[in-house]
Each structure stands twice: as C-alpha cells, then as structure tokens.
C-alpha cells in the first residue's frame, strides 16, 4: 500500500460524522487502499481490506478525541494523537498466527494494535499491544491510548 497522510477529526461529546481530510491529495486515501483490497480477487487480501474498513467505521461511530492524523505504511494504519506537547502513535494491522489452522482456506485474522508510553522520566518507552478479533475491543484500545496520552500531564 502506498503511504499517505489523512487527518481524522474526532470531537468529544459531539455526535456528528467524522470529516476526513487528505493531507496528500495526490495519493489515494487510506480508505481507498482498503476498499481496493476488499474488492481483491484474493480472499486473503479481501478479508484484510474488509476488516480495516470495519475498524475505520467503528472509529467514526465512536467519540474518542479531538483529532487523529492517519496514514498507511505498508500494511499498517498509523494513527497519531497529539495532546499539548505530547503525542502517541497507534498502529493497527490485520494479522494472524503463524501456522494457524485454516478456516475455509484462510487463517483466522485478528486486529493487532500497538501504542507506546514513556515508562519513566528517562524517555524510555514501553509498547502496549492488543491482539483481538473483537472490533469493540480494538476501538477501546484506541480510546485507552488517547486517555493515557492525556493523563501524562
């Protein structure tokens, strides 16, 4: 997938559609990339595309924060949240266990999400990771990452 940047605007306490602004208008949006994947003749690629579109739609239905910037890098969706002078990067990808049992010829896919938090004043970070097949848990993980960033005052 091509790398690109898009701004996602999420507003606290307001229930309105999320506006997506392409930061690199000459590139296809990350949603276009996932739509292309979901329409692939490859069932493997198609499943990845569908799961990422579902994840994006779930983010839009929730109220998770003032602003996220989004871009794709290879097979990952990168979401960045900025709060005052700090930020956190949340990565999301569709993954499966190596050598997992196949169901209908496909591995069992899950969401793999990661964000980093400073573990002490030295600036050393530790990664927090979630692997889940549950879309709501994936959404709550993004909320947790944002709240953790906000609480580091």
What do you see in this structure?
- The protein has 153 residues and is of the alpha+beta class.
- Helix content is 29%, strand content 37%.
- A hairpin with a 2-residue loop joins strand 3 (68-73) and strand 4.
- Helix 1 crosses helix 2 and helix 2 packs across helix 3.
- It is globular, with a radius of gyration of 16 Å.
- The relative contact order is 0.16.
Mean pLDDT value: 78
Beta-strand portion reads 35-45%
Report the end-to-end length measured between terminal Cα atoms.
36 Å
Task: Give the spatial strand order of the biggest sheet.
Answer: 2-1-3-4-5-8-9
Briefly say what this structure is.
Helices cover 29% and strands 37% of the residues.
Summarize the SSE layout with pairings.
Layout: E1 4-9, E2 19-22, H1 30-38, H2 43-61, E3 68-73, E4 76-83, E5 86-96, E6 102-103, E7 106-107, E8 109-118, E9 125-132, H3 135-150
Q: Tags for this entry?
A:
153 residues, alpha+beta, seven-stranded antiparallel beta sheet, 37% strand, two-stranded antiparallel ribbon, 9 strands
């Amino acid at each position: 997938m091509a790398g690109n940047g898009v701004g996602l605007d999420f507003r606290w306490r307001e229930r309105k559609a999320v506006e997506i602004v392409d930061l690199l208008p000459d590139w296809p949006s990350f949603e276009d990339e996932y739509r292309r994947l979901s329409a692939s003749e490859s069932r493997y690629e198609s499943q990845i595309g569908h799961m990422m579109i579902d994840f994006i739609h779930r983010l839009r239905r929730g109220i998770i924060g003032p602003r996220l910037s989004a871009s794709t890098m290879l097979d990952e969706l990168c979401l960045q949240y900025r709060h005052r002078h700090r930020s956190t990067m949340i990565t999301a990808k569709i993954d499966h266990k190596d050598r997992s049992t196949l169901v209908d010829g496909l591995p069992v896919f899950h969401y793999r999400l990661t964000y980093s938090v400073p573990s002490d004043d030295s600036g050393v970070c530790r990664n927090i990771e979630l692997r889940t097949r549950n879309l709501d848990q994936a959404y709550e993980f993004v909320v947790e990452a944002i709240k953790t960033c906000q609480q580091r005052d």
